[in-house]
Please model this.
Amino acid sequence: METYPIWPNLASMMFDLAEKWPRKALLRAYRDAAWHTTSWAEFGRMTASCARHLRAQGIVAGDRVLISAENRPDYPIAEVALMAIRAVPVPTYTTNTIDDHAHVLRDSGARAAIVSPGALADRVRAAGEKAGGLDLLLEMGSEQWIAMLADTAPQDDIARDAAMIPPTAMACLIYTSGTGGAPRGVMLPHRSIMSNCRGAFELVRPLRLKDEIYLSYLPLSHSYEHTVGNFFFSSIGSEIVYSRGVEFLAADMLAIRPTILTAVPRVLEVIRGRVLAQVARQPPWKQRLFERALAIGFKRQDGVPLTLAERAIDPILDRLVRAKIHARFGGRLVAAVSGGARLEPEVGRFFLALGMLLLQGYGQTEAGPVISATPPESIRIETVGPPLEGVDLRLAEDGEILVRGDLVMDGYWGRPEDTAAAIQDGWLHTGDIGTIDDRGNLRITDRKKDMIVLSGGENVSPAKIEGMLMAEPEIAQAVVAGDGRAGLTALLVPAEGHDDVSAALAISRTNHRLSVTERIRRHAVVEPFTVENGLLTPTQKIRRMLVIRANVEVMAKLHG
Model:
């Protein structure tokens, strides 16, 4: 692989690549019962056309423009068009309520929006009325939108304008998921996302990626997918295929057969649970083969030499066991990257033992968002790897992770006090607690503000225990509480097909692996945490404090 090119900004990068690879496939999406491909040349032309028409509609440099749509080719076309004329895209989740959208519109000052048609457009329109009105609402796929993309003129004029935008200009305004309160707008300059792209390029260099197929299913409004799915994999020549939705993910993996995939830990936990449940229904001899494949895989991860017998049977296990796991992901997967939340090591080791190259990344919106990732040639899955190239990282005295470099945001929109608290002497204070091992790998232990202090003064990490609980096949979701009390309590949502009894067995198994202080003393089964009831963010993160508040009566009964 060559050295990663240097571009002044993201829009210039995309137009440059459209000139370089005009016939190469860039985007693929499903519509009208078939998959349709958009080439780089088509992307460049439509994006330039969109930019001209946005200017004609009155969008000027500095204007914030809300974008809310499912993953579709119109999304990057709209966003890059806005960037090219120095307007500021404001990506928001399609799962947002009217009040959520109204908050973003009011906070950002956006007076224009580009959205998917139908119910989503109706919600944004209603949000606009609550926030003081919208000057412009464009619906993707409408006659007006199609006309905006129809210019046949080359991209040259818009590409020339884009080339003049400095790396320090604001690329986008992305709102945090709001696990700790109202979402805040993170001002990301072009240099921040470009830094992520350069660092990711060096990370995956050993894989010698070329002409990959990347399946994009996380929302493009998610800061991770926004950087990786919108820009990084595009920039190295991958074709971006938009999944039809999470409910179709398994089918899409079989149909598209991706070579690169990103996954939030919950998806991996669900797949692992289904595999284990399926194995449990197999004849004893098949179960033994599976267990043998896992055992050999674990020895390989731990650097333990295989016996002669294990070396002899290993190729057979590849065909009979590991190939079936690969088939669930389409059969061509080169690597998968887990991010967005903590991956329980037991889950990661499971997939590595079965032959999947699984990397784990760490970051936050305020850092572009990628800070570190496990290198493919040296995986310690219990860590999130060393910082990307170009990222300075150190630990404060209390263990808080501090980050410095081009990836760091300019600050929070309209919140100078929050910005001053988050960035001190150039260092971003992440709010995460971690340790660094002998190889420079970072390990995340908890969120600084989530640490539980028991009545005896002991500090306990809820994230660690919750991860262990959710790695058990009987438990889908878990929140651990106990601040100021003598022991810990767990609020559990059993996995499909399981109940309180099986959840209690899972707790018992988990407790055997925990210290006395960390063990769960009481638990209760509660209603699932969902985006709809506000207990889950659009990025599938559990809002711990809201879960505890929503179940305050249950907690009171548990504590007598």
Notes: The chain has three domains: 10-175+209-259, 265-331+333-447, 451-558. The domain at 451-558 is CATH 3.30.300.30 (GMP Synthetase; Chain A, domain 3). The first strand starts at residue 25 and ends at 31. The longest helix spans residues 308-328.
